[in-house]
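Lesson 9: reading folded outputs for more than one chain in a single document. The general rule is that every protein is listed as its sequence immediately followed by its structure tokens, and records are never interleaved. Here is the first one.
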Amino acid sequence: MSARPAKPACFKAYDIRGRVPSELDPDLAYRIGLSTARYLKAGTVAVGRDCRLSSLELATALSRGLTDAGADVLDIGQCGTEMVYHATYARELAGGIMVTASHNPMDHNGMKLVRDGARPISGDSGLDEIGAGAIDCDLTPSAKRGKVVLADTLPEYIEFLVSLTDTTGWKPLRIVANAGNGCAGPIVAALAGRLPVEIIPVFAEPDGTFPNGIPNPLLPENRGATAEAVRAHKADLGLAWDGDFDRCFFFDETGAFIEGYYLVGLLAVASLRTHPGGRIVHDPRLTWNTIDMVTRAGGVPLMNKTGHAFMKERMRAEDAVYGGEMSAHHYFREFAYCDSGMISWLRVVEEMSTTGRKLSDLVSAMQAAYPASGEINRRLQDPDGAMRRVEERYRPAAIALDRVDGLSLDMGAWRFNLRQSNTEPVIRLNVESRGDHALMEQKTAEILAMLDG
């Protein structure tokens, strides 16, 4: 007989995600609730959910497990992940759980967990322990069961967002907002009435059948609707979110998609304008532009391992004012060091208004100075072997090597990062150069040929 796994298969490095019902079902959700309440030693836990068809059933079972183990539940209903973060730290709760699969396929779901202060629970910081407890837990309810309290936290979250935003100098921009039938639509609609801009909604109604495709703007095939709407409405800016809207993606006034790498540089400089000399945490996949922008703006760039738990931990340790990942996760000190797909676009609009420049103008110099491939994924049968082959080929000529996250090699005129995903069976490649677009494309094709071969 094979050994029992230490934790369920849906427990990943940073969160919980898996197929429904084969890897995650109401029974396991109930057990996760029991185990989490015991791990947190009860208290009150915020529970939110996205609009996926399975989310309500999973959230209900999760809440039942939490209350059976003695915790109270603040049920904030359908929302975005950052609203769970906000409720957890603003109301000083013991923890929070968001039931979401974000941008994953239709038959998936998952959970993101935080403890008090909206600090992430992941991997060896408690998630593995909760997973083990979910497999082998006492199903006997607590003598004193908790209660579920329904709460509409949208108004207080909107007030929080508005409090961070000085709209005094805002230009009357026209903005396309594509919620992708995820959860961003109601938030943007609530914000629209408080901001001096024109919002043009696209796919704004939350719909768990995702009639217009899974909300994942990182996929090039999912960007067309936003780009077309920007051009059709002669908009100044296009925005698109993933399902739980903790990531926002940007399109300039021509409908061109702007790689998240350059938004990190833009938001870093914007943060340093109000926090001179501040520390900026960034991921190691693409780095040259961020280091250059932060240094020239008088800040301190700090490279850190990819992943929200690692980024938030480093930001707290350094009291960093901003953290950014090229995958469109943007972290803010004012938001308990958490990532937000709402604060990020409000800051970009603020920057466009303050400077009087179009988004294309704000990023064009960065794009020219450091052309980048964007992240390219490959599913490989032997990713370890592929990593070894690439390292053996390029390491002898490399100026510098680091393993902060995967393999990064500085080749002088160009550099690359190759890493295995923590959440999917894929290998990820990023290449950038110093002002030489043709060289970047050549080296990208060269490495991909090695991986594919």
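And here is the second record, again sequence then tokens.
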Amino acid sequence: MHPVTGRVLSIAGSDSGGGAGIQADIKTCTALGCYGMTAITAITAQNTVGVRSVFDLPLAQVQAQIDAVYEDIGVDAVKTGMLANAALVRGTAQALKKHHAINLVVDPVMISKSGAVLLREDAVETMKEHLIPMATVVCPNIPEAEALTGVSIHDEKDIETVLKHLYALGPQYVLLKGGHLESSDANDFLYDGRDIQVYPSPRIVTTHTHGTGCTYSAAIACFLSRQETLPRAVQLAKEYLTQAILQGGKLQVGHGTGPLHHGWNIGA
């Protein structure tokens, strides 16, 4: 039994299929010995095959969830995922600022694995202006980084340029996830404004990748809540994520892009 060593708040959308979003984040918190809490921003009807519909929650309800958690339980780390629209992005930033949020991991979720739009186009600028400057780390994948910077990424030669553009938005760190690069590796790149640290990983050929980004950012938040440094939190999160992907096939869930095995380390 893991002791509860960190209180982690996930502000994200609900995935009815259980593989991504709030559901993935709660499973990750449990697997890593943390206490997971939620502020649900949107309700999706989805499974491993695709997203059927999305219903955005009213801003007041999202802010009320954040306030309720902070005012009673307290929060050691926060991750944001699907924020859906500009009002929710701005309102989430306001609520976090009010509560002096620490250890903020921003996963700028924009498009689902199946291609569904999870962040309205007008919300991208709002995220750049209001939320990313507050982040301890912002962790986009390649398509998200391109949308945030307007810079195309073709290979690792473009990585440094994009990292600098993202860092200029104001976060303490930028973690660029390299899984979408056409290479035999799936390396990630962490930038602190001075140095680029590479987290190497061989590419895993599998269909069990649904919820990868959600799980990664939630795991980083978990390790931050347990007082790890950001570079160390990324390393530990990547190790946990890699095994969750590798063991995803054991679940045999759904007929499309399957979920990870979040409980691989606790026998769940």
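What the second record shows: The two ends are 12 Å apart (CA to CA).
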